[in-house]
Amino acid sequence: AAPRLGVERPVNLSDADAGSTLGFNPRSTLPLKQQRLLLPIAQARTGILYALERYRTLVLVGETGSGKSTQVPQYLHEGGWTQGGRVVLCTQPRRVAAITVASRVAQEMGCTLGRQVGYAVRFDSRVDEGGTRTAIKFVTDGLLLRETLYDPLLSAYSVIMLDEAHERSMYTDVLLGLLKKVRKRRPELRIIISSATADAEAFRDFFETHTHKTGGQARDTHDATIISIMGRQHAVDVLYLEKPARNYLRAAVETVISIVQGEGRGDILVFLPGMEEIDQAVATTKEHLGALGRGVEDAVLVLPLYASLPQHLQMKALGPAPRHVERKVLFATNIAETSLTIDGVRFIVDTGFVKLPVYDVRTGFESLVTTPVSRASAAQRAGRAGRTGPGKCFRLYTEEAFTKLTPHTLPEVQRSNLAWMILQLKALGIDEVMSFDFISQPSAEAMMRGLELLYALGALDDRCRLTPELGEKMAEFPVEPRLAKVLLASFDFHCTEEALTVVALLQVQNLWTSPKGRESRGLQEESMSDLARREGDHLTLLHIYREWEEAGRSTEWCTEHFLNPRSLARAREIRGQLRKYLERYK
């Protein structure tokens, strides 16, 4: 039986139509022009263009799927912000999102991807530097941060849009501080900060006013404003547990079975912390559905959804279900909170947990920690149910526990290893990193540990300046400082080819596939022990790559050894890119 639930009054949450970052678009049969006009953001087009003429910074607040990512760059292009060879730039927190949004915008504009509309992500780029020249460019926020090394004033861009800024990644926070500096030198630059949650005041206040003198008197000039995009409102019934659940995973599965048996039509979205929990929940749910009978099992499609899942499986989870399927059940990580547009979801099961990378300053280790969500994240999750009609959100914790949650998720810059960020700031000529203007200031202890690590690696000298022979070179590599040092030091130890392979494999996720059933798990353990090397994980990775190359990069060999061929192929691409960086130094 499902856990007993106490009913809370309905909460109105904004509905956001489909058609944004990733997901199934129910209006795909309509002409593209008509699809664009039906998006909630279409009503704000004139206001957005007017605000950019009057203000230098615009904070755009709207639910995921309202059309911010795909439409605003097109509005700017149509409004003349790309004339004279200027470029409109839009950042995304994830590489998949940057590529997918660029593809969608190119489709809507009727042009070839890589020409008028392009993208650039780590180890992959489709941008036209000559000829028609790319007018709208999508990049990851990390790549834009690296681009500031070569063009500190970002002179090629007329408008820079930071999308999904509410996720508060380290790259986003650093870019906010850098753009505030750039804006002083380039008053004509326009900045758009796009957020799905109502923390817009913090972004506006960060850029809000500057003081200037007119007629001998100091006056404040307002140069930042907020525009909210409203969609249709649908009520979402939020239900809480009367008593805390002993096992949130079991409670989530029981709640799903209860919804399947007792609620009306509509897909179910379950939020779980990570991949392992999701795989376990998918298997357990399928077992429970099988016990209910063949008819129920065939009518319900159970699927996983997380970032490291291959793209074709992600699209299977996001796309329409087969005709014989009455209901989809998606078990997802927090990637489904804001980055994905999912249509047809009427029921949310929120376990109240999320996995976040946390850096322990005392030990110097970074690990994924399962932690309670914030109230803002909980509201985002509930909002997934109110998009196409009234929905229900089952929160697997008490109402009292909800009131004790933190208002917002701790920004990444306050819980991460800061060595890479410090290295980039030093390379930009910002030596006083301790006084850099962050929207959320990291701890002094974390900054000191980052400086100590860079000094130990030889990237900084005794005066805390970048060393030209090592530090400046390390800053150019798109990998963390320790791995950049490995690559550069490999010359001295005559193991550059091996170092390239190991570092490339450390950049990919999901190298091993997840076997189904006890027999398959046993076979996988045998395969892993055969491929393993006593010298450690890194030489095991090197051995796997060499064996794969000797097998002719065979997919059959990967299947036999429970390895993911896509991950190995991706590692090979990354290896080629890293090799080009090393070739600069002969």
Could you characterize the architecture of this molecule?
The structure is a single chain. The chain is of the alpha/beta class and 586 residues long. Helices cover 42% and strands 20% of the residues. The protein is built from 23 helices and 19 strands. An eight-stranded mixed beta sheet has the order 5-4-6-3-7-8-2-11, with helices on both faces. Helix 6 links the parallel strand 7 and strand 8. The longest helix is centred in the last third of the chain and has 19 residues. It starts with a strand and ends with a helix.
Sequence-ordered SSE layout with sheet pairings:
Layout: E1 5-14, H1 32-37, H2 45-54, E2 57-62, H3 68-78, E3 87-92, H4 95-109, E4 117-121, E5 124-126, E6 136-140, H5 141-147, E7 157-162, H6 170-185, E8 190-195, H7 200-207, E9 209-214, E10 217-222, E11 224-229, E12 233-241, H8 248-262, E13 267-271, H9 275-292, H10 294-299, E14 300-305, H11 311-318, E15 327-332, H12 335-338, E16 345-350, E17 353-360, E18 365-372, H13 375-383, E19 391-395, H14 399-403, H15 419-427, H16 444-457, H17 471-476, H18 481-493, H19 496-506, H20 518-531, H21 537-550, H22 555-560, H23 565-583
Parallel strand pairs: 2-8, 2-11, 3-6, 3-7, 4-6, 7-8, 12-19, 13-15, 13-16, 14-15, 16-19
Antiparallel strand pairs: 1-12, 4-5, 9-10, 17-18
Helix pairs in contact: 3-4, 5-6, 8-9, 15-16, 18-19, 19-21, 19-23
